[in-house]
Amino acid sequence: MSLLAAEILGTMLLVLLGNGVVANVVLNGTKGNNSGWIVITTGWALAVFVGVVVAAPYSGAHLNPAVTVGLAVAGKITWAAVPEYLAGEMIGAMLGAFLVWLFYKDHFSQTQDEASKLACFSTGPAIRNPFSNVVSELIGTFVLVFVIFYLTGSEIELANDASAKIGLGSIGALPVAFLVWVIGLALGGTTGYAINPARDLGPRIMHAILPVKGSSDWSYAWIPVIGPILGAVIAAGLYMFLLG
Q1: Cα 36–chain centre separation
Q2: pTM for this prediction
Q3: In angstroms, rounded to a whole number, what is the distance separating the alpha carbons of residues 241 and 244?
Q4: pLDDT tens digits, residue range 49-104?
Q5: Which of 21, 23, 182, 190 is the most exposed place for a label (fewest CB within 10 A)?
Q6: What is the distance between the alpha carbons of residues 84 and 92, in angstroms, rounded to a whole number?
Q7: Terminal CA-to-CA distance of the chain, rounded, Å?
């Protein structure tokens, strides 16, 4: 499997399962309706686990432009590889969002609340304050990327590049799942913890394209892109500084 295909499939599964659990909780008439925040955060953690398991041996399973940029800033991957990672992550996120819509199509039709339907695609703030919302996404992603640097221990060789032995996949899927879980529980209450530009932007684009009524809230869309990228860059900078 190529790096591009691995990032597409891994991110597709991440979004299908992560946004799928949101749809199960918030859409009308589902078996999991109103099952709560703990179900959503647990579902997202397990979605990360599945995506990493699939993509790790082939791409390192970044599944997140912020992780890709953070690793590039720290010199763990080449900048030349970044566009392929970003393309795979965006395509995968859009495919995953489409599958969520297809799977829950009847329930989208039964749900009148536009905010609930948008939540099945992308994130939104509990209290709309652009500065505070950016800070929330920045801090959440900083924790994600900074801890990833220190969790990386054992190495795996990528199938298409024996010299590339580092990436998100090299830490194993389970620790990352726990990391995303605790970020959701502790830091997810303000913005819904996108902590991943592709996870938010790709599905938001699909919300605008698909026959789902309601605004895609483009005025907010820059926050889950800029905040995570800034958090990842700061995490990489601090990591390199501490290395001396």
Answers
A1: 20
A2: 0.91
A3: 5
A4: 999 999 988 999 999 999 999 999 999 999 999 999 999 999 999 999 999 999 99
A5: 182
A6: 12
A7: 37
